[in-house]
């Protein structure tokens, strides 16, 4: 996917979550009124011909203290209330959603490639206050509960919560219901 298609996919996801039609009017309105969306655009244009706009997008989105230090984040990124959020991962898949005061970053556990930061799969939601540390893998179709502390791998199709985080629900795939463990 090129950078334009990724921004379109991000915008479509934001529109679908607000029940709005995705068009240029929605893009402009959301950019003007939503600091998290401005931060997302600031992140997305880093390696594009529009990178000359980054000083402007940085200035207009600095108030939320949302830091995205991950080079590879798939399309469909949605930041809800991104205040005091730090995201430093090896890579993040598509349709990633996170809330305020989430910290994803460096920890003592190293993965097989020598990274000390997590790898996050597709369709992952991280709720407010969660902390994810180390060279661990967060699978696909995962939800991480509010204030959870994740320091071990999380398998696909799981909901984790607690300190330290434990699996509380699983399902076979996205088309099935959750089952409590």
Q: Can you describe this structure in just a few lines?
A:
The chain has 181 residues and is an alpha/beta fold. It has helices at residues 3-18, 24-33, 35-44, 54-59, and strands at residues 66-68, 78-79, 85-87, 91-92, 97-98, 103-105, 119-120, 124-126, 131-133, 137-138, 142-144, 149-150, 158-161, 166-170, 179-180.
Index terms:
single chain, 181 residues, alpha/beta, UDP N-Acetylglucosamine Acyltransferase, domain 1, seven-stranded mixed beta sheet, five-stranded parallel beta sheet, 4 helices, 15 strands, 23% helix
Write the layout of secondary structure elements.
Blueprint: H1 3-18, H2 24-33, H3 35-44, H4 54-59, E1 66-68, E2 78-79, E3 85-87, E4 91-92, E5 97-98, E6 103-105, E7 119-120, E8 124-126, E9 131-133, E10 137-138, E11 142-144, E12 149-150, E13 158-161, E14 166-170, E15 179-180
Parallel strand pairs: 1-3, 2-5, 3-6, 4-7, 5-8, 6-9, 7-10, 8-11, 9-12, 11-13
Antiparallel strand pairs: 13-14, 14-15
Helix pairs in contact: 2-3
Tell me about this structure.
There is one protein chain. Helices cover 23% and strands 23% of the residues. The protein contains 4 helices and 15 strands. Helix 2 packs across helix 3. The chain is α/β, with parallel strands linked by helices and 181 residues long. The protein has 2 domains: 63 residues, no CATH class; 117 residues, 3 Solenoid (UDP N-Acetylglucosamine Acyltransferase, domain 1), CATH 2.160.10. Strand 14 and strand 15 form a beta hairpin. It has a 7-stranded mixed β-sheet. A 5-stranded parallel β-sheet has the order 1-3-6-9-12, covered by helices on one side. The chain starts with a helix and ends with a strand. The mean pLDDT is 92.
């Amino acid at each position: 996917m090129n950078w334009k298609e990724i921004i379109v996919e991000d915008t479509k996801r934001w529109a679908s979550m607000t029940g709005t039609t995705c068009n240029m009017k929605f893009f402009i309105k959301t950019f003007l009124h939503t600091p998290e969306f401005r931060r997302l655009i600031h992140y997305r244009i880093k390696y594009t011909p529009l990178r000359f706009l980054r000083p402007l997008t940085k200035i207009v989105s600095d108030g939320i203290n949302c830091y995205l230090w991950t080079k590879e984040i798939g399309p469909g990124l949605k930041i809800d209330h991104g205040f005091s959020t730090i995201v430093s991962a090896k890579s993040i898949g598509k349709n990633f959603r996170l809330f305020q005061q989430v910290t994803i970053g460096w920890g003592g556990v190293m993965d097989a490639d020598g990274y000390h930061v997590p790898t996050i799969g597709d369709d992952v939601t991280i709720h407010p206050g969660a902390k994810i540390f180390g060279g661990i893998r967060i699978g696909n179709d995962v939800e991480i509960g509010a204030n959870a502390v994740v320091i071990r791998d999380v398998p696909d199709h799981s909901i984790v919560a607690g300190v330290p985080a434990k699996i509380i629900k699983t399902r076979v795939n996205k088309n099935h219901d959750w089952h409590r463990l």
